[in-house]
Amino acid sequence: MKLAFLGAFAVSSLAVGIAASQSAGSATPPENASPIYGVTIPEGYRDWRFIAPAQEAPPLDELRAVLGNDIAVDAYKKGTLPFPDGSILVKLAYKRKQSTEFAPATVPGAPTTVQVMVKDSKKYPDSHGWGFGRFVDGKPVDVAQHETCLSCHVGNVRDHDYVFTRYAP
């Protein structure tokens, strides 16, 4: 009797474990995930390390700051290309505005986008190992805007593992 109970318990536990792993593997991306790639804004990214600033000329007229997780920062410091899987870069973009306290200075104005690049060569083999996300007010932008991410990176920075940003000294 005990053996039958233990056998039934083991089979039941195995079935629950298989069902859980199947549902996790087939889970749909969260509604805040980018179209095409399913990238989300990483938790805690505002505490990541600074990689470099950037300034976009008109018509965008933006100030940008690129942050990286520890894996990306380590790759930058060592000059590792291609970037290893697990590297994540986040670009914060703001409208440029003149400082009210010091006229020659430019300061961040209203936020425009948060852009995310995630390196996972198994998940994103068709985009050279990178997944992209572009978000406005924490929500992903439409598919058409995400379709331009890869083509711009492929067309301009193929020799730097498809990453524009260089590590600022």
Automatic annotation (TrEMBL):
Cytochrome P460 domain ranges (all copies): 42-165
CDD domains registered for this protein in UniProt: cyt_P460_Mc-like
InterPro entries according to UniProt: Cytochrome_P460 (IPR032033), Cytochrome_P460_sp (IPR038142)
Organism field: Rhizobium tropici
UniProt KW keywords: Signal
Protein name: Cytochrome P460 family protein
Keyword DNA damage among record annotations: no
Statement: the UniProt record of this protein carries the keyword Signal: yes
Extent of the signal sequence: 1-26
One Pfam family hit: Cytochrome_P460
